[in-house]
Amino acid sequence: MRGSGLNWQGLMEQLQQALPHCAVTEQSLAYFKYPKRTLSVNLPVRMDDGTVRMFRGYRTVHSTARGPSMGGVRYRAGVNAHECEVLSAITTLKAAVADVPLGGATGGVDVDPETLSAHELQGLTRRYTSELVELIGKQEDILAPDIGTNEQIMAWIYDAFAEDVGEASAGVVVGKPLMLGGTYRSKDARGRSAVVIAQRILDAQGLPLKNMTVAVYGHGSTGRRAAQTLAELGALVVAVSESDSATYASGGLDVAALAEHHATQGTLHGFAGGTDITPAEALELDVGLLVLSHDYGTINASNAHSVRARFLVEATNRAVLPEAERYLAGRGVQVIPDLIASIGGVIVNYLEWVQGASNFFWTEDEIVAAIDVRVNAALDDVLATQKDRNVPDLRTAAYVLALDRLNNAVVMRGVYP
């Protein structure tokens, strides 16, 4: 379902809409338009059958204006340098909206992780880490999980880095297992923040979340947490989908039972509490809220005309492409953008990084409270920017806020002569 429109031009077009509302110098704008660096590496890995297979890996650091860069590592077939550059820039914007002292980065390997054994996956991960070892670190560039990676892969990165540099450094990677210095709610902070933000925006328009019909596209950790939180708040989660299966129940799904079914069966199809539908049909349902938690480009020019939801929430980066968002806006459909809705991921990664730096660890309740405080503060700042600068929509307001903060950092630091 992924569209092909994840491109730098689309990002720049949306940035241009924000420029009239903020005071950004040409100097700081140049810093945003051009990533700091993009590294491409070849990764030879010995496979289980004794052959050596070559993989292609990437790492883009977009900005270090506000602090060390941080961002995900994705294992996905077709990942390329351009994708990493666009996503790293979005991460820079997100960190600025969250007002954490970090810049954005993204990396990845062109591989379908499902085709590798655990031993091969570990070899690939360690090789990727060794190629980056001189450029990553707790005060340089911090790696985080993304599509196709998880806490096990983060643990391998942590260990490979420690072996290469001769000492453990908890801050070089976030999203680690708890026993290796990870933090609570690392897996589901993005899903929780999407619901927190959506609830506030709906409440402000007199539309309570309770009893609202919801469809969730994507059943990874983000989608599962979003569905669970929505159900706890009284919403009717009538459909849940992933790229190859979906289920529907007009009276609402038992999301806990569905998660158990998916964990044991590996698919959403066949769930006793729902009716099998196609993923495309899940996107076309007449619901109040559609949560998008799969990957970029889920809603694009080819399928936007079929969307009947009144509100869309980007629980993952760039789930709605610009041309689709323009079309939906013309129909009165509001998109709650990724720069706010999925900000919980950036925040929990920041909290884990701080824990690693201080060697002081918070309880689960403290982590949840800290995430909620920062998520709500970010939305407050975006709403204030929208009102004070007379900005037409939330995405543009988030851009304005982020660009202002980046501009202030660049101007204060100056340019090396």
Automatic annotation (TrEMBL):
Residues 186-414 form the Glutamate/phenylalanine/leucine/valine/L-tryptophan dehydrogenase C-terminal domain. GO terms for biological process: L-glutamate catabolic process. It holds the Pfam family ELFV_dehydrog_N. InterPro entries: Aminoacid_DH-like_N_sf, Glu/Leu/Phe/Val/Trp_DH, Glu/Leu/Phe/Val/Trp_DH_C, Glu/Leu/Phe/Val/Trp_DH_dimer, Glu_DH, NAD(P)-bd_dom_sf, NAD_bind_Glu_DH. GO terms for molecular function: glutamate dehydrogenase (NAD+) activity. The record marks D146 as: Important for catalysis. Keywords: Oxidoreductase. Belongs to the Glu/Leu/Phe/Val dehydrogenases family. This is Glutamate dehydrogenase. It comes from Deinococcus ficus.
